[in-house]
Structure formats: C-alpha cells, structure tokens
Amino acid sequence: MSHPADADLLPRLLAGEQGAFRELIGAYQSAMRAVAYAIVGQRYADEVVQDAWLAVVRNLDGFQQRSSLKTWLLTIVANAARSRLKQNRREVLLDDLPAPHGTVDDARFAEDGHWAARVPAWHEDSPEALLTEDELRECLEKTLLSLSEMQRGVVLLRERQGLELEEICNLLEISLSNVRVLLHRGRLKLFATLEHFEETGQC
C-alpha cells in the first residue's frame, strides 16, 4: 500500500478526521507490527501496536515534523515494545555467530544490503501459473514463520517495508553487523525455499 504524503495527511489528522486515521492505520500498521514483532515477539506484538496507536493519538499535537510521520510512528512503537520488554523482563537473543563468508549466496547481496541484481519476476500468464504463484507465496510465508522473531522482523522491515539498514538498527537498537547477519540468514532460508520450489514444485 502506498504511503500518504505527510503534508496532506497531517492537517486532516490534527483536525480529527476519522478517514485520515483510517488511512494512517492502513498505511503503517504492518510496518509497526513488524517492529513490535522483532522486539517483543508474536505473543505481545499486537498489544504493543495497540498501545503505540493510543500514544500516537495522545501525542499527535506534539509531533514537530523533525522526521517523517512514518519514522515518528515506528519510533513510538519501538519505544512501546522496549517498555513492554522491560516489563516482562524478557531478553531478546540475537544470533551471535559471524555471518558466513565466501559462499556463493553472498554474491546475491551488495554490501549495503540491497539485492546485487534484480530478482526475476514471476509470470502469471495462465491459471496454472497463478496457482503456482499462490503455492509459492504460501511456502515463503511458512518459511518466514519458521524464522526467529528478530530475524523475521528484520526481513520484513527490509524487504516488505523498504527500511534502510541504519533505520532498522536505530529502531531495534542492534548493531549494523547484527542486522546484516539476521537479514542475510533470513534471505538464505527464503532462497532455499524458492530454489526447492523451483526444482520440485513443492515446499
């Protein structure tokens, strides 16, 4: 879903327009949940996002536009998630092993975390192709669910929400090297699923 322009949306939000709030939620709910999921896990993610939206409503008048509306929202949900984490006295465990080097898979990604080459598009020219697309999507979703919470959160924030690696670091309060490791390993698992599906037609 495309994100509405702050200049258009913010005055409507400040005026209390309900339609503007619906647009805001529709545009940013998934990104906020991805941040919450990465920090507190699936069990508490929805509660954290709900708390974050309440904080947004309470503090909207104080938004000073020093950052984009999206960055402001994601910062609020990240802070809410960390508060919940402290409340639960729960530790998030990161993969602390070094990222693999010298493998053929490394060539797929550039140093900045972007794809080294454009991923080829899937063609949907027939009902059979459409069915295959749905089956592949289901396989990839299963693989995402199999990732650790932090790993899945990083993958979602990078691949689905388009956040830069530095922004993910700031939101999750983890190092750039950890973000790279988590993203790299998540991508490798997704690629393994994709390649297996291409070879066998099955998950």
TrEMBL record:
Family: Belongs to the sigma-70 factor family. ECF subfamily.
Keywords on record: Sigma factor, Transcription, Transcription regulation
InterPro entries: RNA_pol_sigma-70-like, RNA_pol_sigma-70_dom, RNA_pol_sigma70_r2, RNA_pol_sigma70_r4_t2, RNA_pol_sigma_r2, RNA_pol_sigma_r3/r4-like, WH-like_DNA-bd_sf
Start and end residues of each RNA polymerase sigma-70 region domain: 24-90
Species this chain originates from: Metapseudomonas resinovorans (Pseudomonas resinovorans)
PANTHER family cross-referenced by the UniProt entry: ECF RNA POLYMERASE SIGMA-E FACTOR, RNA POLYMERASE ECF-TYPE SIGMA FACTO
Positions in coiled-coil regions: none
Domain RNA polymerase sigma factor 70 region 4 type residues, every copy: 137-190
This protein's record includes keyword Translocase: no
Cross-referenced Pfam families: Sigma70_r2 (PF04542), Sigma70_r4_2 (PF08281)
Protein name per Swiss-Prot or TrEMBL: RNA polymerase sigma factor
